[in-house]
């Protein structure tokens, strides 16, 4: 048996060349597989025959030419040549892979077309898988014919320059007719021609001189944002050095919103910058000498109710307007007269020692006394004047519409309104009058009819005449 051939001497010759190439060649500008490129790949390596062929393992030489349809997928055609020797000169090959005539040397030539798939086409290192179909020609022939072959394997390309790479393959060239496996390991170089890069070139941005940043004044008031304490001022509004709208009278309302400019310092104002007028008599509180004037009452420049005849009783309460100057009047503005005995007796009969129902009605859920009931209240005022020692209670009552708690509150408020009128209008000592709200606890009529409920909504006066 002849001593087997070693690939070591070949690799020793190739290795320095590859090393120098890797050092001297520049780094790839586009390390990638390019769509539409053609690749030329001369290679050398070593072939390992299946043992039952009785052939010595020998070097393999060949070349490939490929075309990449995309950067991932391509095809390539390859041709290989192996010059081997049999282990025994007298050995023959049978149907199972042995030669049938005495031989010395065996030459094997293969041709195949393969598909190839690249896993990392845009990287400098491109692993791939490959496989295809071809024919194997043994010389001398096995069973007097050429044999079909299927090959498959893996490999990788390593790009040293844009169009130049190293390539390594390991594959199995399987003879279909005899199911014989020939394992090959090869290395070579790749020269790529043409093709279109899938990686867009990275534009080199040229530095652009930036203009100096200008101060920003977002609201256009003449004060830059960095100093503006009142951003968002409406267009056209005059501002101070801090960018805030002017407030000339310092009342807290800016001039462009102030409907009452020039308000004196310290005067409380509303949202429009106008002095407060709590009783709505058109005289602001800070000038009003009679605060709390009832609504609708005419007042003078001091906010006090008018008293045309100057008798000390304002016009809206004066039952005797035009009283001559110097005439002493009572709380109604009428001249004082001697008490009429008959009127006193009638007042005593109505108000002393028994409840007297007052003819006063209130609006729903209201406690305000309407002016049309002033005459009825005057009868109570006259009674208290006739009997200065009389004391008693003003009581409020309601019907059953609404809750108990609500009606108690409502009846109490109405009784309090009557007492306040008597005290404020006739100067009655408040200690002489008590008030109480009874709600609907003391009906005097049925609450099932409108007429009955009206009778129950009442004010009673219950006084003693001591």
Can you characterise this structure?
With 466 residues, the protein is an alpha+beta fold. 15% of the residues lie in helices and 27% in strands. It has helices at residues 8-24, 341-351, 374-386, 404-426, 450-456; strands at residues 38-48, 58-68, 73-85, 105-118, 125-139, 147-161, 164-175, 180-193, 356-358, 391-396, 433-437, 459-464. Strands 1-2-3-4-5-6-7-8 form an eight-stranded antiparallel barrel. Strands 9-12-10-11 form a four-stranded mixed beta sheet. A hairpin with a 2-residue loop joins strand 6 (147-161) and strand 7. The N and C termini lie far apart (159 Å). Mean pLDDT is 85; it is low at 1-8, 17-28 and 89-97.
Could you report the average pLDDT, rounded to the nearest whole number?
A: 85
- Biggest sheet architecture: 8 strands, antiparallel, barrel
What is the percent of helical residues?
10-25%
- Output the helix-strand order: HEEEEEEEEHEHEHEHE
Number of helices: 5
- Within the largest sheet, what's the order of strands? 1-2-3-4-5-6-7-8
What fraction of the residues are assigned to beta strands by DSSP?
A: 25-35%
Please name the CATH architecture of the domain at 8-193: Beta Barrel
How far is it from the N-terminal to the C-terminal residue, by CA? 159 Å
Structural class estimated from helices and strands:
alpha+beta
Please mark out the parts with pLDDT under 50 across 5 or more consecutive residues, or reply none.
Answer: 1-8, 17-28, 89-97
CATH class of the domain at 8-193: Mainly Beta
General shape:
rod-shaped
- Computed over alpha carbons, the radius of gyration is 61 Å
CATH-derived topology of the domain at 8-193: Porin
Count of strand segments: 12
